[in-house]
Amino acid sequence: MGAGRWRLLHVSKRTFQKGVHTIHLPSSSGITLNAHMSGRLRIRGDLERAAGKEMFPLPDDVCIIPPGLGRTLIVAPKGDEPATMASLTVSLDALHRFIGQEDLQLRVARLRDWYPAVRFDPVLAAVVKAVAAASEVGADDLYVQSAAQFIAAHVLSPPTAGSARSTGALSSRQLETVLTYMRENLGQPVSVDDLASLVSFSRFHFVRCFKATTGSTPYRYLTDLRIDLARKYLESGNDPIARIGQCCGFSGSEHFSRSFRRIMGCTPSQYRAMRA
């Protein structure tokens, strides 16, 4: 573990080797942010305030812990490479410096109402990473003060009316994350829960937002991508049809044939014959 300490900010970094690790983040009087730094990482959060679980696998997700609340995280690096997570706490002194006492109490109470707060926030994630890096090279007080002020204002501001969650749609970045995952795993089992966890949504909320954004359900969209891939295999090679279906993520020949006919209007063998 690497760590850096300033008066207004405290930063720590944890590197996890392959396996499952349980870490406890104790409550503090300030605001604590947790963000992915490097490697492939999946995190499950067990809340102390209320029963529940969440998944935070995205590099641009930030887990926000309000003052006075703690959290236990179960961390599992994906693959054989180690993964690193940064934890940053903005001290109560820093919060009082930038925000008046009465206003601060109202904003913190609102933040507690949002808890558990997992925010898809590329800007905040980048700031956490930058501050973690700066702590290792001895950044000066001006840097620390500016970073603390920005974080306090950014985290404690009310959510904008145009956010993806309030409009019922995925942001362009969230959509690209989900579609990239689909494309990279066409030959593997992919569940709606897997996709929902990529953007830290519940299953129901994700399906609704995905359909509002694309006009299609996640399952139908994924099937369309698989059929497109199967068409390329059918047009460009002589692999057995059963093997093509397997490579494209279908559970069996019948499933592949039925899905292909529903979308293309013909069976895979008929399609290959027409394209020969």
Level-1 CATH class name of the largest domain:
Mainly Beta
Protein structure class: alpha+beta
Spatial order of the strands forming the largest sheet? 1-2-9-4-7-10
Low-pLDDT stretches are 47-54, 161-166
| Basic shape | elongated
Radius of gyration, in Å, reads 23 Å
Number of helices: 12
Q: Provide the CATH topology of the largest domain.
A: Jelly Rolls
Largest sheet: 6 strands, antiparallel
Beta strands, count = 10
Multimeric organization: single chain
CATH architecture of the largest domain, please? Sandwich
Characterize the structure shown.
It is a single chain. The chain has helices spanning 92-98, 101-114, 122-137, 141-156, 164-167, 172-184, 192-198, 203-214, 218-236, 241-247, 253-264, 268-275; strands at 2-5, 9-16, 21-25, 31-38, 41-47, 53-55, 61-65, 71-77, 83-90, 117-120. The strands form 2 sheets. A 6-stranded antiparallel beta sheet has the order 1-2-9-4-7-10. Strands 3-8-5-6 form a 4-stranded antiparallel beta sheet, with no helix packed on it. Mean pLDDT is 80; it is low at 47-54 and 161-166. It folds into 2 domains: 2-158, Sandwich (Jelly Rolls), CATH 2.60.120; 167-275, Homeodomain-like (Arc Repressor Mutant, subunit A, Orthogonal Bundle), CATH 1.10.10.60. 30% of the residues are buried. With 276 residues, the chain is of the alpha+beta class. It is built from 12 helices and 10 strands. Strand 1 and strand 2 (9-16) form a beta hairpin. The protein is elongated and about 75 Å long.
